[in-house]
Amino acid sequence: MSPVDASQAAVAAPPRRWQRFTAAERLARFAVYLGVVLAVVTSLRMIEVIPEFLYDAPEQMQDLLARMWPVAWSHYPQGVHDALVDTLHIATLGTILAVAMALPIGIAAAPNVVPSRVVNVVARLLLVSSRSVNSLVWALLFVAVFGPGALAGTLAIAFRSIGFVGKLVGEALEESPRGPIEALQAAGAPWASQLAWGYWPAVKPAFWSVALFRWDINVRESAVLGLVGAGGIGMALDSAMNLFQWDRVATVLVSIFAVVVVAEIVVTQVRQRVL
After folding, report:
1. DSSP state at residue 15
2. Superfamily holding 78-274
């Protein structure tokens, strides 16, 4: 083809347009957006939002905040402090129990550590069962068994946390490098030695991160377990709300906020020193 013919062909050819997404990708994105809009519309229709209640919501919130001020700080020593300490005890002891129970289940859920399909499936079923039940539901069950108090709250926190800790520990074990394990196997090390000297050094940072993060979560969750009678500061909050003592409610809420902030700072400092 001569240069003249090539130039004419280039002029005659339509210009190429660059498109970020293909036709199939654009169709998929449109389907996702349409599904989100339909889900939002359906949800709004199902929950039956009453517009009359929304109109005066700002006034109701202003009135509620006015009732909470000034904060009844004098109520803290007698009505809040002991319940707040119980909340920390529930979160801490529940986390320790959860870690103790979750470790063997997480190990059993890792197929590279326990090469048994039946054991892996049973362990994963236990982890899913723990995560599928909310902590308030666990608290209701244990309150029915053991009665109201901190014991029910501690067990609720523990059984709720098993699935979280066990799943992440099991995944960390599955992703551990094979080099040290193969070296220990070649040297004839028993299974316990492989676990202690091969897997543990690899999963140690993940384990401490998971344990500390779960304790931080449990401090928040244990603060509301008292609403169903499972001990802690939630019982003080429920009592003050039932009696319409909004200045005391403000004291409880400020105390919960302060504890959550302190727990976040403690977890950050411990992670920096441990990891």
Report:
1. P
2. MetI-like (1.10.3720.10)
